[in-house]
Structures are given as structure tokens and as C-alpha cells.
Amino acid sequence: MTSRNWVKLFMSTLFIGGIVTVVTGFIVRWDEFAPFFTNFNLSEILAITLWLIGVGFIFSLLSQAGFFAYLTIHRFGLGIFKTAKLWNAVQVVLIGFVLFDLIYLRYIAFAEAGESVLPYIGVALLVFIPGLVVAYYRGKQTDMSTFIPALFFMVVVTTLEWVPILTVNEQSWLYLMLFPLVICNAYQLFMLPKLNEKSMKERVNKKVAKQITRKPSNV
What DSSP string describes 116-176? Predict the structure, then answer.
């Protein structure tokens, strides 16, 4: 990917993270923010919006760091396990392990006596179901060999990025962080092949342009 397209991906993902966090924040914490709208307290609304944008930028940066870390890990995995089939099998095992831990560890940490495990399963499904959808369409975008890597990224890497909030049991913050992470991660997955293709075309065009300028004139 060229530096120009990398900057484009960085800025657009940053913008998406900010916008999604603002929308999510006002929805999940509406009970807290509603009085500012009913009283039309414009200064408070603006201050909250700017704060949510800043928080969203942080979530976006976590998402982008996780994305580029996974691209590196994916290459190492292919190199270590030699074949994509074996590396995909390892990723499937890790997906199952992370989902189990996401349910079990939070349940034993936060569940009260007699509390059902279903809400904790629901939290895991909030990662797994969007991951399946994104991985399916990512596979349709190129080929289905990308399904498992995309699912691994959407489940395992998103969960790792989500860890700072998973260590507490505050529902609004869980959602406030999760939705921007999922959307930013999905956006980067879908944009990567497009920007790689665009970068390749730009390099070819640049190479052709250099060859034309170096070609001796017949005049």
C-alpha cells in the first residue's frame, strides 16, 4: 500500500470511529444526556459531542493498531505453519478459545450467586455474529479463503482491543467501545483489497510515466 493510501485509510477510519462513537454514546447513555436536549443546553451537548469524538478517535487508533498487528501476525502464522490450511485450523481453535474465555472468565468474575450465564453468552455473540457476517462478505469480496482470517480478526483481535473495558462490568461502556471497534475493523477489512489494488495501479502508472520520460525523443 502506498503512503498516500495508508494516510487515506488512517484518516477515514479515524473519522468513522469518531462518528460511530458519538452516535453510540448518545444512544447507550441517553438517560444521562436527555436532559441537555430537553433543556436545549447547547454548550453541554457540544462538550459531550467533542468528548465522544475524542474517545472515538482513541477507539479508532486501537482498531488500526490491532489491524496492522494482525497483518503481521498473519504473515508469521503462514510462515510458521507452512500452509494456509493448517494456519486456518489454528485460528479456528483460537477463535473458540477466545469466545469461551469471553464468556467463562467474565461470568466467574462478575456473576452474582444464582445469576444466569445467558447475558455473558450474549456479550460474546455481539462479537461473533457480526464477525461471521463481515467474514462472509469479505470472502465474497475476494475469495472464501479469506473467511477464517477475517473471522479471526473480527473475533479475536476485536476482543483483545476490547479488553480495557471487559475488565469492568459497566454495560454502557461495553457497547460504547464495542460498536466503534467492530465497525472500524470491518471497514479496514473491506478497504484493504481496494486500496492495495489502487496502490498497485498507481505504482504501474508511475513506472510507465518514468519509462516514457526516459524514452529518447526522435525529433
Answer: -SHHHHHHHHHHHHHHHHHHHHHHHHS-GGGHHHHHHIIIIIHHHHHHHHHTS--HHHHHH
Task: Kindly report the pTM of this predicted structure.
Answer: 0.87
162: Cα within 13 Å, side-chain hemisphere: 31
- Answer yes or no: is 163 within a domain: yes
pLDDT for the residue numbered 93: 96
pLDDT tens digits along 1-13? 777 888 899 999 9
Question: Is pLDDT at 219 greater than 50 in this prediction?
Answer: no
Whether 155 and 99 have beta carbons less than 8 Å apart is answered as: yes
Q: Is residue 33 part of a domain?
A: yes
Q: How many domains does the chain have?
A: 1
